[in-house]
């Protein structure tokens, strides 16, 4: 098992992301109490319904107000094992906080995310025992076979999980708590999926994602990094050696524009650029003093634009092919980007990149529609760096490893969102690879639902034990 220190030792001490400080630092005890005291503990709490993992929000807030911080974290983790990172990365403005009754009265809604961060951060501070270890001993050393089999009602199962992102981590953690063997295979050197490699640093730094992973591992989950399923391990091996397989593989490489001049220096896929910025010191990818264009209108495009502005770009312009209303990025995130000085050009379709005689990037030729800021026709936007944020490829190859697993027209693995069941009775799936790319909280909900479904299936009707709330 990897300790937190071992995981952190794989992270370079010098990383660009560390230049971007936490935007919403943790509450002090006094601030948390004051904010918790404002909650009305609504009987039909709309905030709960707005949370994809349906955390009992008024209960966890009440526990903070009464000084029971560990109990508060337990309430959160029972529904959302990754409540620590979700507290920091969830778009609460459109989820729980957006549903808080205070909004209807034009008063400041309860800062649910910051309270959740306070409770989970305090309760999982270094040295704390995993909170969900039950007194009968579900949390165990990986070789604690006897204890585990009693937890699993004599039906201890082995599950292989592909990818160490939020979907698999949640699924594996809840399975381990039920006494099953959960082994995650991750192709990268660091576990965590986009929580480690993609989330904007002002929400979550990589070391904080790793802190949470060490906590999940301490529940009894094993993670093998540097192992790519389909290459280092075959699907047929997993089907033979495990009782079930969970595919939490996320999405693939950044999609390219496929226009002239794209192959060459200065142009990056958005998630590849973010990963380099989060996990290393820039080597030729620094936006400092550069004129940056970010192509796309989704949340990834907005994140890159904000990050470049915060890292000292001379100017940052987002280039989007339709109107503002059609952008898939959240309005509150775009507002944040504008405050950092990001400009937006709409109705602009990239036509070709322009380079000088030495091959250096000099501009992007775009085709502008008539109802844009400028005159219709073609125009060249000067730039030194471009990030292309127009989506990521889907994971057909991994589906092909498992007979019966199919992919839909969008390239997503076909799975029942309630259980994760795919066309192969032994294979389950969840997270971005089945929904095409949503939020961390959706991936966590998927992983948890599959763990509960498997546990119910394996416990069978003779064992009516109810372990986790539904
Ligand atoms: C730039 C960016 C910013 C985002 N910001 C936010 C945010 O602020 N808030 C929010 O809630 N959501 C955000 N999201 C979305 C969120 O990160 C995802 O919804 C979530 O991480 C999906 O989790 P997952 O487990 O399905 O996949 P991932 O997090 O993508 O994890 C999949 C893992 O599987 C591994 N893998 C893939 N194939 C294999 C294989 N064959 N063998 C072994 N391992 C494999 C990958 O290396 C990866 O580690 C963001 C996404 C992006 C791209
Ligand atoms: S809706 Fe707002 S006030 Fe009501 S319980 Fe939820 S957080 Fe508290």
UniProtKB/TrEMBL annotation:
SUPFAM superfamilies: alpha-helical ferredoxin, Nucleotide-binding domain
Gene3D superfamilies (UniProt xref): Alpha-helical ferredoxin, FAD/NAD(P)-binding domain
UniProt signal peptide: none
Pfam families associated with the record: Fer4_20 (PF14691), Pyr_redox_2 (PF07992)
Start and end residues of each stretch annotated as Disordered: 126-151
Domain 4Fe-4S ferredoxin-type: 30-63
Name the UniProt record assigns to this protein: FAD-dependent oxidoreductase
Species, as recorded: Pendulispora albinea
